[in-house]
Amino acid sequence: FLMERKTHVKINRKEVMLAKLRKSCSCTPQKLKNFLMDFFPVLQWLPKYRIKEYIWGDVMSGLVIGIILVPQAIAYSLLAGLKPIYSLYTSFFANIIYFLMGTSRHVSVGIFSLISLMVGQVVDRELLLAGFDLNDDAPPASGDGSLQNDNLSNTTAFNFTIVGINAKCGKDCYAIGIATALTFMAGVYQVLMGIFRLGFVSMYLSESVLDGFATGASLTILTAQVKYLIGIKIPRSQGHGMLIITWINIFRNISQANLCDVITSAICIVVLVTAKELGDRYKHKLKFPLPTELVVIVVATLVSHYGKLNEVYASSVSGAIPTGFIPPKVPEFNLMLRVALDALPLAIVSFVFTVSLSEMFAKKYAYTIRANQEMFAVGFCNIIPSFFHSFATSAALAKTLVKTSTGCQTQISGVISAMVVLLVLLFLAPLFYSLQKCVLACIIIVSLRGALRKFRDVPARYHVNKVDALVWVVTMSASALVSTEIGLLVGIVFSMLCIIVQTQRPRTALLGQIQDTSFYEDDLEYENLSAVPKVKIFRFEAPLYYANRNYFLKSLYRLTNLDPNLEAARRKKYEKKEKQHLKKGNHRTANGLGIGETTLQLVPKQIDFQALVVDCSSISFLDTTGVNTLKEILKDYKNLNISVLLACCNPSVIDSLKRGGYFGKDFGYMQEMLFYSIHNAVLFVKDQK
User: What gap in Å lies between CA 210 and CA 451, rounded to an integer?
Assistant: First the structure.
């Protein structure tokens, strides 16, 4: 039977586009209100805020995250190659802006180790190109911690001209200029992606690519912190192969290790790891996680200050951290041009991590987020703070997990965290002057535990899916051994190539009938299947398109043990020989048979079927090459008196076949060529006998 297709009304796309354009361009008070409510989701949920139910959890989680943010902000400044004050600015502004614009109730947006590393690599490259020394072990600035003294202490500034910039600017000044220009461009990209609804780009970053990228970047982060752990002074490596070059320099200079830094690092790592393991083991009994990082920083700062570790043992310390806010400044346009390309992977990674975490926690706590609004939120978390000497931000998994475990209900907790950071910015920052850099390196390295533990998951990942495991290994290796940006690109390209290869060489099978049923399955995979007499049933488990056309034909000929082209050529050759013998008057054929037996000889013994059924249930689409391939086998097998039937085609495949003329001009033979199940096709063949 042939099912009757519905008639679809043709849509005038031009009219639809014009109608949408007119609707979007119109402005009414209600539309303006809806726009503001959508653009600032806080206007929707804040009036409905349940103070008695939510406030305690939000305050507790906000305080805990704020306490965690302060040491992490100071530590991650090492990764970004910037002063700690800029990390504190970043943490403050990101929380406030996401509170206004974000749709997730739980994610913690701020500094993130991976993003800080990507910013730091661009900053280091541009500093090197501008002629600055990347050695960051200069004597710490002294003073009372005020902004004025901090600016005066940086008297190593000199005049330089680069890409149209002619200014008296020191290393720190130029570094934050690069970082803000990079951040501004990343934010612009994210906003543009939101306007043009390009959030689908994140679909090309699979879980294996993201995990491999994060693990490879974690190895780079760990490598960059080793010199602080042992207190050696080596140049900050730049470019491809940074990880290998850094380790070579470390082993060359290992004899110069600072014993004070080594002992401090060992103690801090033992304390931090022990506290983390105990916290993970007894987290169900703890109302909130232990503020181990803050305790370590406070104790280490006191020991360093009163023990005079910098003066006596030449241990590298953070130096003066100014209080207050630096006046806002527009990022340099000329610097934006230099980092425009670098900002693109930064924008994509920042957005993908934020949206994936938002979706994960929205699903867990049964609410919805708007991915496009998240794009705008994270974009403006980069654009606006870039005017206030901040760098790129993203959602962070570790802090988000802490946030939810301590009772977070809404983004009010983000405001509380911002207030904690503001307190440090205004009053407490100078107290961290004597904090050793090796302590900050320990905090960074211990925070990488989760990403580095992914190595333990490789066997399980390999067992589940070998291709995904290979994608993880390739992405991780490229991110660690080449560079983070190249690693991300390699991971995306390689994962897409794997998909293409899988569609180029998909599974193919001949099907047998499950006894006493109307169902058919792969006779190589299942026992007790019975072959259908005189019928071959072929399954191709992929779309049929130009890239796998040859594989389709080779698999079909191999499994059916018949190449119709070769068989047709053989028959023509045989007939030609027979005619030559007949012309000579020889009534014995080339095979020594009589003329009466020639007809039997022309029918090949190896052809043991009269019909070929192609199971199209796994063919999701056909391109022009795919349609022509099916027309080709239809013609070739017809020349051998073998009928070709198609079964289980979806509507899009049927439409492609119709447009390609597979069923003839008037579709007259369609009922004899197309069937809605394999069993119907088999029954049709039996009836034709």
Answer: 11
